[in-house]
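Supplementary Text 2. Reproducibility record for the structural model of the 278-residue chain.

All settings were left at their defaults, and a single model was retained for analysis rather than an ensemble. We include the record here because the model underlies the residue-level annotations in Supplementary Table 4.
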Amino acid sequence: MCFLVSASVFACGGSSGPDQIAFSSDRDGDTEIFVMDADGTNVRQLTTNEDRDFIPSWSPDGKQIAFSSDRDGDLEIFVMDADGTNVRQLTTNEDRDFNSSWSPDGKQIAFFSERDGNPEIFVMDADGTNVRQLTNNDDWDMSPSWSPDGKQIVFNSGRDGDGEIFVMDANGTNVRQLTTNDDSDGLPSWSPDGNQITFYSYNSDRDDDIFVMDADGSNVRQLTTNEDRDFNSSWSSDGKQIVFNSERYGDPEIFVMDADGSNVRQLTQKGYTPRYKP
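Retained model, structure tokens:
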């Protein structure tokens, strides 16, 4: 099975220095992790590997980046220092582990894995130890994103028959459905203040757009209106901007907009899964 996934961004504590965006790109021939300044300049390549490195996720202090890679033969989660050095493998499993999301205190990483036969959400300590399964469902659960206060994890699931957004307590209990829609909703991302969640909604015509809702699922607003796909959103640390992927000019590229959907600007040629530095 193939799924569109994304890592999560947290805004807690924060780190000094200019705003940066980590992202994936195949501009060197295969998929690697890059970082750029928030205006799209000063692009630097962090990984150089013959296999795929993608879906970056900043640690809350901005000092590390977790990512997914199939460099050991299947998809696993790795972590590196923010300059690309000191790469360590966190998961070792015959099935796919990917789409990592740090807890706001930096002590845990949520991810989803197919180790029980279908995608479920797991959590582990930040060094890869103490793996625990949070969801156990006949359908898929994926794309976890931790709330800024660390108390909840939002995710998307096929448990209602199509993709919808759900939220649960950080220990896997108290699951609540946030969206109910005939189309599919996915890739949720918390705002830095914890009051809003962006996601994208998609249909069979591949007319995907980015929406935002209050954290309880109410007050849904559409941010992008485009005949091509807009997806995979991530908030800036001050909550004023949202970076996202769009296929409006053909291939997936990285764009940024103000948090109300206005002032859209293109940042890259060849880039996807953008993530703002906390």
